[in-house]
Amino acid sequence: MPNRRRVLRAAAACVAVPFASACHQILGPSGYDANWQVFDRGRFTFYARPSSFAAQSIDPLSIVLDDQYNATTVMLAVQYAAHVSMYLYADPKDGDFAGNFSGVAYPDTLTVRATCLPPLDANLMSLLSHEMNHLITRNTLGQSGTAFMTEGIASAVITERYHSNGRHFYYPWTASHLSQLPPIASLLDDDFWNRTSSQVAYNTSASFLAWLIDTRGPAPLKQVFTVRSPEAVERIQSAYGQPVTELESAWKAFCLAYKGA
Ligand SMILES: [Zn+2]
Questions:
Q1: What is the distance in A from the centroid of ligand 1 to the CA of 112?
Q2: What's the 3-state SS for the chain?
Q3: Interval between CA 148 and ligand 1 midpoint (Å)
Q4: To the nearest whole number, what is the mean pLDDT of the chain?
């Protein structure tokens, strides 16, 4: 499944910035050059290199991201109206990125910088959605306490109206990688997370949090979103009324039985 393999790489895009901490600690990008074509589309302002693939793809991308923005606020049951700036780079070198699917989100300035290479497919849509979701989650749920929450939530709320790189990817991926998955309790420890394969860490956290949202709603997740690693396991148990290990077993069983409905 070559397409799925590309998806894995796309999902790990943020890893170029360890813990994606840059998403939260850098006040904003600086030093932009002037060579941008500017497109205002509703709540978005897009910046693309003149005549680039990105510049030619603004309308479909704006439709996908607008839908994603709405879906994220609905899934998390939050009210949030913000104007988002998206800088779409023609290639990794152009934006000083490590790979073809890379991005950084700056919640304080509501800005995303990301690569935007053809084709206009699920990988590109989910990359930009993931980065935009960092802006919304940080500004509505607060500063996440663990890398697990930071990265997991940004993909867990990816909606699939225009592609299938959300639950239709994460749940089957979980079922087919059960033997490789570290315990959730371990991944909630940032030190462990940083030593884990980024693909495994990102996909596992996204899958588990998507399932938690689907089955328990967003309320308990909001109670544990900002909790730091040492208390995370205990606080999840108290918010959900079940030990993490029990939730984990139920999630795995769900993924194994998932038929993509
Ligand atoms: Zn990220």
A1: 11
A2: CHHHHHHHHHHCHHHHCHHHCHHHHCCCCCCCCCCCEEEEECCEEEEECCCCHHHHCHHHHHHHHHHHHHHHHHHHCCCCCCCEEEEEECCHHHHCCCCCCCEEEEHHHCEEEEECCCCCCHHHHHHHHHHHHHHHHHHHHCCCCCHHHHHHHHHHCCCCCCCCCCHHHHHHHHHHCHHHCCCHHHHCCHHHHHHCCHHHHHHHHHHHHHHHHHHHCCHHHHHHCCCCHHHHHHHHHHHHCCCHHHHHHHHHHHHHHCCCC
A3: 10
A4: 90
- For residue range 111-165, what is the model confidence (pLDDT) as tens digits? 999 999 999 999 999 999 999 999 999 999 999 999 999 999 999 999 999 999 9
- Say how many Å lie between the CA of residue 245 and the centre of ligand 1: 25
Q: How far is the centre of ligand 1, averaged over its atoms, from the C-alpha of 205 (Å)?
A: 11
Q: Note residues around ion ligand 1 (Cβ under 5 angstroms).
A: 14, 20, 151, 154
pTM for this predicted structure: 0.90
Region 40-53: mean pLDDT is 97
Domains of the chain and CATH, by start: 15-141 (3.40.30.160), 147-257 (no CATH)
pLDDT of residue 6: 38
Q: Find out whether the peptide bond into 119 is cis, omega within 30 degrees of 0.
A: yes
Give residue-wise pLDDT tens across range 197-229: 999 999 999 999 999 999 999 999 999 999 999
Give residue 236 CA to ligand 1 midpoint distance, Å: 22
